[in-house]
Amino acid sequence: MSLLDTASLIVTPNGYKEGKLYSVIPSDGSGDMSVSRATTATRVNSAGLVELVPYNLLQRSEQFDNAYWQKLNGGIGSIPTVTANTATAPDGTLTADRIQLSLNGGTSGSVISYINANVSTTAATFSIYAKSNTTPCTIYFRSGSTVTTINITTEWQRFELYSSGAITVAQFGLRGGSYGGAVNSNTADISVWGAQLNEGSTALPYQKTETRLNIPRLDYSNGTCPSLLVEPQRTNLARYSSSFDNVAWTKGAVSVTANNAISPSGVQDSDLVTANGANTQHYVFQPSSAGAKTYSVFAKMGTQRYIQILTSGTAAPVANFDLQDGVANMSGSNSTATIEDFGNGWWRCILQTNDSLAGTFYINYANSLTMGRFGATISSGTLYLWGAQAEVGRYPTSLIPTQAATVTRNADVISKTGISSLINSEEGVLYAEIKGFISLDTIEPNRYITLTNGTSNERVALLLGGNVNQLRAIIYSSTQSINLSFTTNLTDVKQYNKLAVKYKSGDYAFFLNGVKIGGSIITNAFPANALTDLSFNIGGGTQPFRGYAKDVIVYNTALTDAELATLTTI
Known about the structure:
Jelly Rolls, flat, about 0% helix, about 575 residues, mainly beta, 8-stranded antiparallel sheet
């Protein structure tokens, strides 16, 4: 029997749905973590691509009776009627809805009887499963301004419609002749299921949605195994983050060709930037609110090897990046430059600055890794840009796509309450394999994963923070006069570390990467049922965890030191 078999609760990034991250142990749902964010977000998927979470842009993908789906007519046909959960869907569940449409004898080109959802995107594919409930019929599907008329049989089929332009609606229904000829019936009785709108020219595997807002992010940035990505609230202050042709970006001696190459999202939505060959500065820039401390952009070399990110402000930081060899170099002070490989020649170039007055975001051509601010280049070089971000914070977070306005991604909130049956308050172990975003964060210095009573008054905790590269365990009980803290500064918190804290009367200990950091033999113990929650914060919602988590495990008995050394060995 392995140590994992004796755990009372194991949470890993595996199965999920909106608002839930399933526990491995127990598997009956009693250990599932609650997830809330109330906004969409992005992650790196298993193919290494940056994608929206969820990538299905439609809400209520299996609930056509919901008010999200508008039921309308054009004055001739009837309002569509929807009866929920009347047919077996392609996945074997009784979740397909019956839609009844009628032209009432009308044959004109006006809108007659249809259902639609309002959306806003470009270059995307609408897909839906549909079948006729009586005889084969013809209905139309519309995605933005692109429309196609399709014959529906009495067997389930998945229909796809790609639109390369602006998309403002996902719609299906009956019309007259203007949409590809007259329909072959004045009525349609169909079943539909699994509506989806995803970016790109092909339909992705179907992804069920409800509100779309609380899906946990299983991120593959670190390899083939996912990690749970937990981030703070951030706002991307850069508008039109992937549309450098837009007037929001001022151009200096360059031209921009929109949607010229495949971006890190796997979609052809990155822009080609071409310098005009003059002996001058070549750049794009955009003013943003003062106080943006981290600037980033995804860049790929065409013929231009070096770029520069710089900003206005008192410290005037500047960073240069080599898009061929993937090297970053600071030419300013009080700042940090990093570069991250996103495959296929793409790099995320990052400037982190402590300049509180930083505002304007420049992306400039450079001659070398050591060029100073706004050096002139004699260049007709080309490069590709995508996903610019300016955010107030001391480290970069996942991309927040924007259009005409800035966009805020809310914080990820992960917790599980009322699980005293899975936590032994008198003895046990809390284990986690985690890594942070930054070695020292003065804004959020302590980032907790904790067994609590719903407050910070009773807690067994593992945390990142305090000082540079500090990893800690804290055991605290206000009722039992327990106040233990074990700390090490020997490990890089930006790499994965395995931590475990053991609590038991006369036997407290903290293990890190196979080594016992410290222990105590005090005889104070938690009272029975004092610990009821597993929280990604200190307890009560403050000092939340920020970083990546591969595993969080709870044991309701205290393991031996030898077992803890084995459990935490990297």
